[in-house]
Amino acid sequence: MSLINLTEADLYPTEKFGPSLEGTLLYKVRDQAHFPGAYMTTNERLFMNVDMNGEPYTRVFAYTDIVRAFIEDDVLFIEFPEGMGKIAMVDIVSGSADEFAAYVNDKSGK
Predict the structure, then answer these.
(1) Nearest-CA neighbor of 23 among 65, 67, 60, 77?
(2) Beta-ladder partners of 68
(3) Number of DSSP helices (H) and strands (E) in the chain, helices first
(4) Over the stretch 10-35, which tens digit does the pLDDT of each residue have?
(5) DSSP assignment, residue 96?
C-alpha cells in the first residue's frame, strides 16, 4: 500500500505537485517509534501521511511552519519550531531525499 496518495482533487486550484518521499518515519508514540509514512509536497503545502497500525493519519504543514529539512547520516530530518522538534525518515523506498530537502528548504525560505 502506497502512502503517496495525493491526487489533483486534494489540491487547491493554484497548487502543483512537488517531490514526494516514502519510507519509515521515526516518531515516538507510546511504545512504538517506527511508522510507514510519506511526505508529499506541493508549491504551497507539505502533506505527511502515516500508517499508525492500520489507522491512517494525515497532517498538513505550511512551509512557514518548517524550520528546515536536512540529511544527516542517510537520515532525512524535517525540523519544526520548538515544541514539535524533528521528525526523521529512514529506509526511503520512493523518491530522492536530496531533491525533497532542497525543495522544502526553497519553499520555506531557507
Answers:
(1) 77
(2) 79
(3) 1, 7
(4) 999 999 999 999 999 998 778 888 99
(5) -
